[in-house]
Every structure is written in C-alpha cells, then in structure tokens.
C-alpha cells in the first residue's frame, strides 16, 4: 500500500521509500522509513497532508505514490 492510497484519519508507518531521490526529499521533510504519521487530509489529484507529532506536511501525489506504508490503526 502506498501513502497515496491511504485514507484520512489512518495512522501509518513508513515501510519503504525505494527511489533514492524520493527518499532524499522525504528525509528533508523529516520523514524516513520507520516513522509513524497520521493522515490529516487527502486532496483529490493533489497532495497528501500528514501529521508528524505537531507538524503538518503536504506531500505531493507523485512522491506519495513512491512511499510504501503499513497500517498502524
């Protein structure tokens, strides 16, 4: 399952970021494999907004499609 396929309100764990360029950008956002984030909002054909602790991040749809996740709750 990818971050782009998640549902608002889910808590997910970042399982894998395969593409090196996407991994580098995610690390700049403070997101890496093993991190737990909550899905705040999914904008149709737009970004996925996630919450990590007290910070909200908008992750572009293309980038979200390259981030593999596992469901926590």
Automatic annotation (TrEMBL):
GO molecular function terms attached to this record: transition metal ion binding
Superkingdom to which the source organism belongs: Bacteria
Occurrences of domain Ferrous iron transporter FeoA-like (ranges): 1-71
UniProt KW keywords: Iron
Signal peptide: none
A Pfam short name: FeoA
Name assigned to this protein: Ferrous iron transport protein A
Organism (species): Heliobacterium mobile (Heliobacillus mobilis)
